[in-house]
């Protein structure tokens, strides 16, 4: 009959107050753990997707939008930039790599991204079935795209204009799946990746079909389009919301207007059909930049922003800004969780203290049986420890189990990878802090037990 | 009062090496003031296997004497020896140890620990007395007292008489040399009172212990070997 067993028996003989204490503590622990896990995984997710990208260069607009669209594929890009910019910035001495992305089409809601093989390398993604693209209109699918759409190597598919399930499909020229990427836990899982060239060709073919008259006239000469002339092409009326260029102006009608007035914005259409398509007139949506020197983060954006129509956005800076806005909510949740833990500690204190009053006689008897004062102290502390342990483990298990379940559901419905079986480093501190709080809450009742005046307690029975 | 030759604080661990067994209890010239009353005892000794009824009306200091004997209170003056060890000058931790090892107490209100079974109450007493945990002995003792079948019940699930026997079993389970019972029969009818005293005497003699019964119950005073009236001590 050890002290621990006695402590356990004391707690279970009147289970209600023990259960309330455990429940309150579990609630506090669970809330904090969920916050910690969410915070850690959000940070992790953001970092994993940032994939070492230092800057995103794109058309002028909101820098946050540029980062969200370029890195997280969660927003529409602000506009397009000329392909010559790719070459220009890739050659910059401070740039280690510049990966162009061309967006604008999707398949069943999954974005089709025209890029180079470097993009796949950024995310350490490897085709675990098939291979990367080699020829035009070959594409690889991210693991989640494959899982959700059922696309597999050897399947043809047609992209649609825009990022939502549009009916305007490029049926005339389907892509062929040549590879499927292994899961990475990053955004590339949700993408269909092909070459920049394929996206260009897709739109060339598409626009040829859409504007046969225009293209016929254009095809006879190269570069007949006057880039400075406003383009009152019928496209504007028929495809007001689905522009041909591969960015999604339809989400930004104002920008569309601006953009249409830019001399180079229509080059893509102008060169289509031309046998001598000028590289300098092609467009991409944005550029993902990795710097060769950390110093570049200061000077390069200034240089980019000084270029007409271009801006550079730093993912780190934009995300910090975003987290600051969202962070206020998280701070308050933390305060709330701390309040829960304090109330749990108080309930442990109350449970032990009230049971102590009822058990004064028992404690006096234990002393008569030969227990020392310190053994009574230990007994009460053990009871506090057991309550704390039960509360903490219940809270941790519930939080991790809940997050795991949520992760399972989200993976199923949203493709968001959340794991309940990871541990945030702060959890160690949380657990240590909670044990300290629990023992502190038990210390006063324990001290009262220590000081039990046996003779007086027994006489006043 | 039997007078025995007093050796000079013999070793507690080896008290039987003297030719004559030392007294289990030896009190000399103690005084203790409590509340408004005062207790004074010139001399009181108790040999192994001896039984004594400590008598006196309420407020005469019966319980105080019990607390002094168990070291829960310290006398203002005088000496109390348990097994030859002077307990009035010992540290509290040492008194706790001596009380646990050498004294078995039966409380008026029994005071079995309610959250654990009566068998575990017995094992807890062994644990607190720092003797080897002997579940077999505890079970045997309970069976002897007719509680064998009930050993896994909690005290709250026993009748008054069963609880009384369980409390007696707990007091003797670690084989103490001194058993002190505080009004053990006050809540019992004549039959159960007689049974309880007989049981206490039997267990005392079998264990070679001494028995002090603090009581004002006239029914049992004559069943014990000696009577020690506190009124005479005033």
Task: Characterise the protein shown here.
The complex is a heterodimer of chains A (461) and B (234). Chain A is α+β, with helices and mostly antiparallel strands and 461 residues long. Chain A has helices at 3-13, 15-50, 63-70, 83-90, 117-122, 143-149, 196-210, 212-219, 235-238, 253-261, 267-271, 296-305, 315-368, 373-413, 426-450, 454-459; strands spanning 55-59, 81-82, 95-107, 110-115, 127-130, 138-141, 156-157, 160-161, 175-181, 191-195, 283-284, 286-291, 310-313. In chain A, strands 1, 3, 4, 5, 6, 7, 8, 9, 10, 12 and 13 form an 11-stranded mixed beta sheet that branches. In chain A, strands 2-11 form a two-stranded antiparallel sheet. In chain A, 46% of the residues are buried. Chain B has helices at residues 62-69, 92-102, 118-128, 135-144, 160-172, 190-207, 218-221, and strands spanning 25-34, 37-46, 51-55, 77-82, 85-86, 103-106, 178-182, 210-214, 226-229. In chain B, helix 3 (118-128) packs parallel to helix 5 and helix 5 packs parallel to helix 6 (190-207). Chain B has a single domain, classed as 3-Layer(aba) Sandwich (Rossmann fold). Mean pLDDT of chain B is 82; it is low at 1-19. In chain B, the strands form 2 sheets. Chain B has a 5-stranded parallel beta sheet, sandwiched between helices. Chain B has a 4-stranded antiparallel beta sheet with strand order 2-1-4-5, with helices on one face. In chain B, strand 1 (25-34) and strand 2 (37-46) form a beta hairpin. The two termini of chain B are 17 Å apart. With 234 residues, chain B is of the alpha/beta class. At the A-B interface, helix 1, helix 13 and helix 16 of A face helix 2 and helix 3 of B.
């Amino acid at each position: 009959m050890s002290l621990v067993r006695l402590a356990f028996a004391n707690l279970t003989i009147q289970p209600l107050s023990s259960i309330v204490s455990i429940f309150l503590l579990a609630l506090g622990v669970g809330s904090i753990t969920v916050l910690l896990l969410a915070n850690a995984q959000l940070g992790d997710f953001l970092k994993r997707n940032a994939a070492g990208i230092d800057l995103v260069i794109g058309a002028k607009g909101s820098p946050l939008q540029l980062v969200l669209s370029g890195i997280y594929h969660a927003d529409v890009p602000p506009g397009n930039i000329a392909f010559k910019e790719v070459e220009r910035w890739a050659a910059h001495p401070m740039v280690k790599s510049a990966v162009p992305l061309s967006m604008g089409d999707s398949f069943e809601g999954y974005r089709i991204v025209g890029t180079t093989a470097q993009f796949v390398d950024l995310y350490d993604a490897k085709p675990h079935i098939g291979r990367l693209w080699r020829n035009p209109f070959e594409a690889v699918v991210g693991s989640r795209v494959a899982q959700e759409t059922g696309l597999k190597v050897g399947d043809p598919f047609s992209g649609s204009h825009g990022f939502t399930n549009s009916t305007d499909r490029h049926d005339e020229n389907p892509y062929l799946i040549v590879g499927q990427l292994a899961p990475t836990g990053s955004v590339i899982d949700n993408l269909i990746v092909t070459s920049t060239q394929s996206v260009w060709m897709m739109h060339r073919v598409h626009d040829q079909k859409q504007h046969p008259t225009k293209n016929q006239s254009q095809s006879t000469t190269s570069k007949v389009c006057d880039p400075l002339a406003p383009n009152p092409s019928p496209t504007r009326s028929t495809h007001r919301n689905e522009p041909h260029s591969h960015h999604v102006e339809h989400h930004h009608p104002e920008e569309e207007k601006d953009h249409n007035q830019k001399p180079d914005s229509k080059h893509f259409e102008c060169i289509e059909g031309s046998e001598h398509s000028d590289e300098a007139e092609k467009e991409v949506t944005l550029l993902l930049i990795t710097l060769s020197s950390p110093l570049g983060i200061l000077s390069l954006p200034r240089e980019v922003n000084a270029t007409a129509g271009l801006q550079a956005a730093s993912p780190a800076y934009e995300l910090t800004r975003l987290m600051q806005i969202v962070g206020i909510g998280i701070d308050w949740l933390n305060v709330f969780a701390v309040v829960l833990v304090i109330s749990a500690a108080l309930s442990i204190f109350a449970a032990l203290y009230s049971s102590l009053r009822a058990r004064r006689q028992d404690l006096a008897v234990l002393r008569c049986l030969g227990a020392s004062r310190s053994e009574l102290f230990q007994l009460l502390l053990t009871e506090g420890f057991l309550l704390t342990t039960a509360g903490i483990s219940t809270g941790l298990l519930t939080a991790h189990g809940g997050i795991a379940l949520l992760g399972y559901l989200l993976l199923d419905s949203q493709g968001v990878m959340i794991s309940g079986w990871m541990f945030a480093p702060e959890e160690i501190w949380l657990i240590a802090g909670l044990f300290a709080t629990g023992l502190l809450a038990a210390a006063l009742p324990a001290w009262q037990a220590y000081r039990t005046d046996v003779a007086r307690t027994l006489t006043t029975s | 009062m039997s007078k025995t030759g007093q050796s000079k604080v013999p070793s507690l661990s080896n008290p039987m090496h003297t030719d004559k067994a030392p007294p289990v209890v030896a009190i000399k010239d103690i005084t203790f003031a409590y509340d408004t009353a005062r207790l004074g005892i010139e001399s009181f000794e108790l040999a192994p296997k001896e039984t004594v009824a400590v008598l006196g009306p309420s407020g005469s200091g019966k319980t105080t004497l019990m607390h002094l004997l168990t070291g829960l209170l310290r006398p203002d003056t005088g000496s109390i020896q348990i097994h030859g060890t002077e307990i009035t000058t010992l540290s509290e931790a040492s008194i706790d140890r001596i009380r646990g090892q050498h004294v078995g107490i039966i409380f008026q209100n029994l005071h079995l620990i309610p959250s654990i079974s009566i068998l575990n109450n017995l094992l807890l007493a062994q644990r607190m007395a720092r003797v080897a945990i002997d579940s077999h002995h505890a079970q045997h003792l309970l069976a002897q007292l007719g509680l064998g079948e009930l050993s896994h019940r909690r005290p709250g699930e026993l009748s008054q008489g069963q609880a009384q026997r369980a409390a007696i079993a707990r007091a003797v389970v670690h084989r103490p040399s001194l058993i002190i019972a505080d009004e053990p029969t006050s809540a019992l009818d004549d039959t159960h009172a007689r049974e309880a005293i007989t049981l206490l005497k039997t267990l005392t003699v079998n264990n070679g212990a001494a028995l002090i019964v603090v009581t004002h119950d006239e029914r049992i005073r004559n069943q014990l070997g000696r009577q020690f009236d506190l009124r005479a001590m005033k």
